[in-house]
Amino acid sequence: MLGLLQKIWVEVRWPVLFFSVGLSAIMSLLTALLPKVLGNIDSMFDKMPMIRPLLTALLGVDPGQQVSAQLSQAFLWVHPTVLTLVWAHEVMYCSRMPAGEVDRGTADFLLCLPVSRWKLFLAETVGWLVSGTCIIVCGYMGHLLTSLTVQPEMRLSVLHSLIVIVNLGAVYLAVGSFSFLISTLCNRRGRAIGIVFTVLLASFLLNFLAQFQDWAKLISRWLSVMEYYRPAIIIQTGDFPWFDIGALTTISVLMWIASGLVFRNRSICTF
Amino acid sequence: MQTVDIANLSRNYGSRRGICNINLTIAEGEIFGFLGPNGSGKSTTIRVLMGLLKAGSGTARIFGKDCWNDGPAIRREVGYVAGDVRLYPWLTVRLALSMLSKIRGMRDLRASGIKLADSFRVEPDLPFRKMSRGNRQKVALLLALAHSPKLIVLDEPTSGLDPLMQDTLMTCLRELATRGHTVMISSHTISEVETLCDHIAIVRDGRIVEDSTIKRLQAQAPRQVVVTLRADQPLEALQWPNDLLVCYLPRKNGEPFKSRTTTPVPTSCQDRTCILELIGSSASFIAWAAAQNFDDIMIGPPSLEMLFRPYYESHQESE
């Protein structure tokens, strides 16, 4: 296992550093800017009515006519840049093996090592969890440190932000395990990444359409990942989203097991 | 106990043919040559053995263990080099040896690996992406040999290697075989297999068409005979023995009378040189030839190339 982790470390250390620093910087910037920008959101609602359903889709709740300073911090956690960085990292990471290995022809070397495929998959999973934790914690630290510089009434409570982090972690698990599943079914890394991003984009689109279409609302309630990640509600109520986190974690575990089984039983052909 | 035991093994790629009813055994300490044209099923068989592909039907066993279900235990004692060597671009020999030591749970492989790197003339700290094709092949070989495996499986290992390096590899494999290690080598080069292997099998269109020892095959293999007629000796008067296969006879009316050989015949000798394949014993031929009083006779050693060429030729014709 140590040798496999060493290989993973050599391969992913720079991307993880890049994503950690990037997320930290973005979250820091958004923490400082969002209260100022969203202070004028009411006038924007009047001028551009389309913005409101868009924000409702992102937040999972109607922001109402006035966006509170604390609620404005909820945008931080659903900002497309933040989600894109987190998901880009895990989609890239989780598509490395086996799709990436088969694609670049190194699967022969890796799979002929004296370790079981489950062990290989487990090592990849450890790397995925550690790197994800590292990136999300770095992002959170960026937010936390910058929030010290904003006015106290604009700060989120640490408890609320930690609950949001846990919910984001559950989303991370769901997207990553889905990426693993697609990766185990593909021989081309590009194809695996394309499929996962298409599904994520469709999920986003569905969430947005749900503001206008009943059929989309019906599907979105079950299939959109954003239905299970609503930082605004957490910030407003302070409740721990047991159902959302439970649903995301259950789906993640099921998809992770399915990925492992597919990988274990699949013939790998590099020619 | 057999090191490798394959029974009725079949594997298809969807509608594409892979291998069909392969039966093969390789004994401990043997150097086994796996021959066959491109796409005949050599690599598929090896991939099933290495646990990369699941057998469609039949069994593939190494050290008595099932190749698919007991893969990790088998691969602990196996060194494998794929036909198309691809390694991580960032990987250096030193780093790879350090990782492999941990993965294999063995003593530090760096000492034996660096020693091999020296004999293969590979820089241990050069990343794989900066290496030439030949050096990449050498790295794959030394990583496969560093832990001194009981079974070494090499899929066309000499491709990309210079002749000196090929010799070094052959010497290394022979030494390992004398110490009881088993070697399975797939190759296109019949001469290479002929000099190295004890036992060979030829696979064509996914089936084993020949499985024998080199000694037995050499006894069956034809010898090439080059006969130079006397200037006054009429070709038509000769009654060739039955165990001679005529490959080339001198020109008649400006065209070769018969030609089935790839050996070039010098222009100066074309009117008097005959190239033949001797299938039977050379003693009876020598007795016959002595009575003919030829200008010159040259009898070559038994050649597996001549024996196997028909397998390759008919494969190319069918393609």
Detailed description of the structure:
The complex is a heterodimer of chains A (271) and B (319). Helix content of chain A is 78%, strand content 0%. Chain A is mostly helical and 271 residues long. Helix content of chain B is 33%, strand content 31%. Chain B has helices at residues 42-49, 71-75, 93-104, 110-119, 133-145, 163-178, 190-196, 214-220, 282-292, 304-318; strands at residues 2-13, 16-27, 31-35, 57-62, 65-66, 78-81, 151-155, 182-187, 199-204, 207-213, 223-228, 244-252, 255-259, 273-278, 296-302. In chain B, a hairpin with a 2-residue loop joins strand 9 (199-204) and strand 10 (207-213). Chain B is elongated. The chains are: A mainly alpha (271), B alpha/beta (319). Chain A binds chain B through residues 2-4, 6-7, 10-11, 104-109, 111-117, 119, 265, 267-271, and chain B through 13, 43, 47, 50-54, 71-73, 75-76, 78, 80, 82-84, 86-88, 90, 95, 98-104, 140.
Tags for this entry?
heterodimer; A: 271 residues; mainly alpha; 78% helix; 0% strand; globular; B: 319 residues; alpha/beta; 6-stranded mixed sheet; 5-stranded antiparallel sheet; 10 helices; 15 strands; 33% helix
* Multimerization status: heterodimer
Q: What is the 3D form of chain A?
A: globular
Q: In percent, how helical is the residue content of chain B?
A: 25-40%
Stretches of chain A where pLDDT falls below 50 for ≥5 residues? Answer: none
The tally of beta strands of chain B, per DSSP, is 15
Order of helices and strands of chain A: HHHHHHHHHHHHHH
Q: Report the average pLDDT across residues of chain B.
A: 83
Treating each run of at least 4 consecutive H or I residues as one helix, how many helices of chain B?
A: 10
Structural class, judged by helices and strands of chain B? alpha/beta
Main sheet specs of chain A? none
Q: How much of the residues of chain A is beta strand, in percent?
A: under 5%
3D shape of chain B:
elongated
Low-confidence stretches of chain B: none
Cα-to-Cα separation, first versus last residue of chain A: 28 Å
State the helix count of chain A. 14
Helix/strand structural class of chain A: mainly alpha
